[in-house]
Amino acid sequence: MKRKITVSFIVMALVCALVGGATFALFTDSATNSNNTFSAGTLDVNVGAQTYEVDVTNLAPGDVVDGSFAVTNDGSLDLWYKVSAAGTGALFEDATPCTIAITNPIGVYNALASGANATVNYKISFPLAANNDYQEATGTVTFTVNAEQVANNPTPFAPVTAE
Predict the structure, then answer these.
(1) Non-local CB neighbours of 68 within 8 Å, separated by 6+ positions
(2) 140 and 91 in contact (C-beta within 8 Å)?
(3) Could you give the 3-state DSSP secondary structure of residue 71?
(4) Residue 95, by phi and psi: left (phi above 0), alpha (psi -120 to 50) or beta?
């Protein structure tokens, strides 16, 4: 009798295993999408050649030089840009130095779309009050164009803080 109980228990276990196994059998599948490439955009600002409306090699007191140059966005992202100018040398020193003013664009920062260009206009003034100390003086003007991305940047040229 003990043998019949054991055989019955084994048969029941096998039936349960078959029924349970068949109950938990599901169709399955999986797929992989591995061709996801991401790349960062670029900021690439370029400055073109200078153009002048007067001869800048023979300045006299009272002269005003109007000039311009192009700023080009050769990057893939739209950018904010700002222009600054600095003069060095004897023409930009002492009591009545030449002055430099960016006349266009006037804003602190300006937007420039990818592939676009803009003209920067400036004025260099040699004061009429300049004395004989400035004869044969020379000077150099350096224009700097700084750029930042427009995307996700509502306050360009503000200090960035880590979060």
Answers:
(1) 50, 51, 119, 120, 121, 122
(2) no
(3) strand
(4) alpha
- State the DSSP code for 128: T
Q: Tell me the whole-structure pTM to 2 decimals.
A: 0.72
- Summarize pLDDT for 41-76 with one digit per residue, the tens: 777 888 876 665 545 778 899 999 888 888 999 999
State residue 12 phi and psi, 5-degree precision.
-65, -40
The CATH class for the domain spanning 45-149 reads: mainly beta
| Residues facing residue 102 across a β-bridge | 122
| 141-151 pLDDT per residue, tens | 888 888 899 99
Domain ranges of the chain: 45-149
Take residue 4 and report the two structure tokens written for it. Answer: 């019949």
97-110 pLDDT per residue, tens: 999 999 988 777 89
